[in-house]
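Hey team,

Filing this mostly as a record. A colleague (T.K.) asked me to run one chain through the structure pipeline before their review meeting, and I want the input and output archived in the tracker in case anyone asks later how it was produced. No errors, nothing strange. Just documentation.

Input sequence:
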Amino acid sequence: MPKIKTHKATVKRFKRTGTDKLTQRKAGQDHFNARETGNTTRQKRLDVTTHNTITKTIKALTPYN
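Output structure:
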């Protein structure tokens, strides 16, 4: 069987933790942030765990990470 190619854009956006969970950056950080409250800005700095509905797809796209 040949090797499976890794989807490079997915690797750059998601990281696997030690317990095989997936983390990603919170969306909406690029612009239009002046109107956000301070609490929202602080929450956007943290990484979030990926939703279960796309976890299986992401793991298939990144077989060796």
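Quick notes for T.K.: The chain has three helices and three strands. The first helix runs from residue 8 to 13.
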